[in-house]
Design brief:
The protein has helices at about 1-10, 10-25, 45-70; strands at about 30-35, 40-45. It is an alpha+beta fold and about 70 residues long. The protein has a single domain, classed as Winged helix-like DNA-binding domain superfamily/Winged helix DNA-binding domain (Arc Repressor Mutant, subunit A, Orthogonal Bundle), CATH 1.10.10.10. A two-stranded antiparallel ribbon has the order 1-2. Strand 1 (about 30-35) and strand 2 form a beta hairpin. The radius of gyration is 18 Å and the shape is elongated. The N and C termini lie far apart (about 50 Å).
Length: about 70
């Protein structure tokens, strides 16, 4: 996280917030490294897996839009 903080010029808190969101949404994997002290290792999912997640989200949004349009004509 410190490396990202330096390279991106944003706070550690902001980085942690976005890492948590990306992890919850399935775009990154997190594992515990129990070396000297507790720390997390983050890894992006494959491009194919990320695309599946994005495509599913788009499909859900399109379904919601279709429902709203259908209701407006009733």
């Amino acid at each position: 996280i410190k490396e990202m903080e330096k390279q991106l010029g944003i706070s550690e808190r902001t980085i942690r917030k976005y890492l948590k969101k990306l992890h919850e949404e399935g775009f990154i994997q997190r594992r515990v490294d129990k070396s000297e002290r507790l720390r997390y290792i983050y890894r992006a999912v494959s491009l194919q897996e990320a695309w599946k997640l994005v495509r599913k989200r788009i499909e859900n949004i399109m379904d919601e839009i279709s429902q709203v349009i259908a209701k407006s004509f009733n």
